Amino acid sequence: MSIVESALQRLKGARGGEPEKRPARAPEPGPEDSPPAGRVRTQMPTPVRWPARPAVADFSFERLEAAGLYPPERSARRLKDEYRSIRREVLAATAEKNGTTGSLVGPVVAVTSAGPGEGKSYTALNLALSIAAQGVHDVLLVDADTVKRTISLACNLGDRPGLAELLEHPGGNFLEYAYATFLPRLHVLPTGAHTAAAHELFAPARVGPLFDSIRATLADHIVIVDTPPILVSSDTPVILDVAGQVLLVVRAGNTLQDGAREALDRIRKTLPVGVILNDWSPLLPSEKKTYTSYVEYDR
To answer: Are 98 and 249 in contact, with CB atoms under 8 Å apart?
Structure first.
């Protein structure tokens, strides 16, 4: 069972030896815009009007635990505390401006890893649960891993239409393909049709307009996209190109340093990147370097 041992860290030194800078914050408001002393400016996002759907995802903590995507009760409290720390960083970043491009980071958060078995789906799911449980932002959890479909299968949505159909037939309303869960603020967009040619749909001309629509509709909310490992899938860079920020999940004792560096090289340099250290233990041999094969990703 993967437990996130470290909150979000800003990657240092991986891109040319200098610490990566956080995106610049928006200009501070002037005196006429400042709230009264002692008060914090707050504004609740406008709730999303999700279409009424008779089908609700079979989504429960028990089912997620059975699928290896949620910890047993004895570890759940610790996990929630860890993801609150990550949640705080992610939410803060969405409201910032990208220091390179000057554009707003926005709601789309892509979660990836260098290779398989590093906990990216676990991280994407539990981050979505944490943000939705806060009760402020609506969360759309997108399963974009059309090979493993971990989240779709865990939610019993493996045979339901979703992302593949939206990409195959541009112009569809993504809200109509999102499934409600037991958390009112959390919806899941499954991968859709499971075909050998599904990865052919991930062309920029298809992915870009779809995520433009998602960003416009959920501008004040959060979209978490579980992507395939970046070193074994050509789909992932296309998805990362439409994201506002990226979380790179690395697993202690599993992720090779060279693999992590190569993964970073494949991420657009202007994207803010956060690193989540998964399964860390002080007892792990520092030189342990292993990889698990992932034959299914070979195309």
So the answer is: no
Q: Three-state DSSP class for 135?
A: coil
Q: Strands 186-189 and 139-143, how do they pair? A: parallel
**Per-residue pLDDT tens digits for 197-231:** 787 899 999 999 999 999 999 999 999 999 999 99
Closest CA to 103 of 208, 245, 288, 277: 245
CA distance 143 to 104: 24
Q: Could you tell me the pTM of the whole model?
A: 0.81
115: buried, middle or exposed (CB in 10 Å: 19+, 13-18, 0-12)?
A: buried
Q: For the purposes of burial, counting CB atoms within 10 Å of the CB of 209, is it exposed (0-12), middle (13-18) or buried (19 or more)?
A: middle
**H or E, element range at 219:** none
* Alpha-carbon span 166 to 182, nearest angstrom: 24
Q: Which residues contact 283 (CB under 8 A, 6 or more apart)?
A: none
Which residues is 249 bridged to in the sheet? 113, 276
Contacts of 153 (CB under 8 A, 6+ apart): 67
Token duo for residue 51: 């279409």
- Please say if the pLDDT value at position 122 is more than 90: yes
Six token digits for residue 45: 């996002």
Cα 8 from Cα 91, distance rounded (Å): 12
| H/E segment holding residue 275 | strand 273-278
- Yes or no: is domain 54-281 CATH 3.40.50.720? no
pLDDT at position 197 is 78
Tell how far CA 244 is from the center of its chain: 11
